[in-house]
Amino acid sequence: MIFNFLSCTKPTMCETEWQDINKWNVLISSLTLPESPPVVMTHIGRKNITLEWRSLYNPSYLDKTLFGFNITTCVDGVELEYCEVQTFIRSSGGTLMERVDEELSSREGTDVVVFTVFLSNLLPDTAYKFRSTMFVGTSHSNPSEWSRLYTTPPLSIPSSIHGSVKAIGGDVKMPVVLLFNLPIDDGGLPILKFIVRARNHNENFQQKWKVYGNFNASNIQKYSLSNDRRYAAYYHINLFNLIPDCMYDFMISAVNDMGESLQSESSNTFKISSKHVMYTPDLILQGLKSESEQITTYVETANDGFVISKLKNSMSNGEILLNDTAQKISIANEFNEIIVDVWSCHYSPSKFAVRGAGIWVDSSSFSVLEDTNDERLEGKIAVLLRDGEPISSKARKVQMAGAVGCIVIDSGRCSEYNQKCFPGSEKGRGELFGEVDPPRAWESIRIPVVFSLYDTSSRQFLETAGISI
């Protein structure tokens, strides 16, 4: 139909006739616009999905008529009226992406155009179906058939740290900087914190990794203190309070509300400089301070014949620091801190420092025990009195029961750390006690063992700990 405006005698008549003709053209278009094939998923996440489909109609870019697709998103089992419809318009820089599928085009001998959209704000662990409707101007095609059901993954723990963890040198007060990449998958939830585990190769009494500390994820930033461009893309954590002259390696894990990720690969081994400022007495090697609690004294007689008395302490953490490297033990209350010089065993680990709750073990029948699995010793520092039983035997038993350190208090016969106290050794000459003991007696001992005189300072220590001998 050809309309000639020159034949109009009245403008209002021309406009009316043109509108009628345009309605007719729109009706024809709506009947002839092809129905698109069903959409398919190319990638799905917990809260998003990428869909694509082949277009059977692709107007020229010279045609300025509005062109695009409405994508209907439906949760499985939900009525159509409650489904969401999103509009994607073809425009420069728009959200409707298109490309020519080279493989299909080569096979069919003509350009095959594929459209792609990205949908967000989906729910995790939910089944969805989708369909598309083409529109050109005000005309719409029939909706495509529904896609098959696609289920978004459920929430989960984060994936492990991506790639390797690098330990590099910092400065005197901050000896190590850990460089790492974030997990590729956060599990669908914000990462709350990172947990760093450290392994001291010189401490190493059981070859165990220990929690060094928890680091709030909101404080983790990219590393910017180096001119080396290789490090600029990494996030970093600064580590303090590490034992000088010791070899460490590290692992990092990420935590969200669903739990903790798998550990990263271990970092390179890094030696802490001898110039590193030694840790302070309030260090806990594991990097975690215990919750505030008032520990009261009590005595229990176990069926296996030894008595355990929990240490009494009015301080918030109430733990003993056993510093086998400096040959000192310390404990504190709200008024003061007691530091006692002790004598380390020749067979203790070469470098060691551990903090743990002290626990007093005292019984005349303890010497006949071959083993104890009493869980009250797990992770604690055992405090024992020297008697006729070999110290190596005592240490072995508390180690088997889970103690991480052993402090032996003299019964009162020693006044100095010399050969009168332990034959064959003088602390003043830099020697450690037990050097002349047969190695076989100590070969299974991996925890640090120290010996303390029963003098004024040790009595203050025991009093602060709530122990009476």
What report would you give on this structure?
The structure is a single chain. The protein folds into 3 domains: 33-151, Immunoglobulins (Immunoglobulin-like, Sandwich), CATH 2.60.40.10; 166-271, Immunoglobulin-like, CATH 2.60.40.10; 299-465, Glucose Oxidase, domain 1, CATH 3.50.30. The protein has helices at residues 11-32, 102-108, 391-400, 439-442, 456-465; strands at residues 40-44, 49-54, 67-75, 84-89, 97-100, 113-119, 127-136, 139-140, 150-151, 166-169, 176-180, 193-200, 210-216, 221-222, 235-239, 247-256, 259-260, 270-271, 299-301, 307-310, 320-323, 328-332, 337-341, 343-344, 353-356, 358-362, 381-385, 405-409, 449-452. Helices cover 11% and strands 30% of the residues. Residues 1-6, 278-317 and 364-373 have low confidence and may be disordered. A 7-stranded mixed sheet has the order 19-20-26-27-28-29-24, covered by helices on one side. Strands 3, 4, 7, 8 and 9 form a 5-stranded antiparallel sheet that branches. Strands 12, 13, 16, 17 and 18 form a 5-stranded antiparallel sheet that branches.
